[in-house]
Amino acid sequence: MDTINPSSASIPAIPDWLAIVREKVESLRFGVVQLVVHDGKVTQIERTEKTRLPAPSGLRAE
């Protein structure tokens, strides 16, 4: 009887684009990471970062 060694089982490879997305998200404080997909494949990754400015002193937000 054959035994299956869990360490030899094939593990699907992580796509290159996923590492790029993870890097972009981890380095982003406020913003958007957008994926562009063509024919079921990620072809472009866009990152838009927003900079939040502190409210001027003396003004109250209502």
Plain-language structure description:
The structure is a single chain. This protein is α+β, with helices and mostly antiparallel strands. It has a domain at 15-49. It is elongated, with a radius of gyration of 21 Å. It is built from 1 helix and 2 strands; from the N terminus they run αββ. The model has no long low-confidence stretch (mean pLDDT 86). It has one helix spanning 16-26, and strands at 31-38, 41-49. The protein has a two-stranded antiparallel sheet with strand order 1-2.
- N-to-C SSE string, H for helix and E for strand: HEE
Helical percentage: 10-25%
> What is the global morphology?
elongated
The low-pLDDT segments are none
Quick take:
The chain has 62 residues and is of the alpha+beta class. It contains one helix and two strands, in the order H-E-E. Helices cover 18% and strands 27% of the residues.
Element layout with pairings:
Elements: H1 16-26, E1 31-38, E2 41-49
Antiparallel strand pairs: 1-2
Keywords for this entry:
single chain, 62 residues
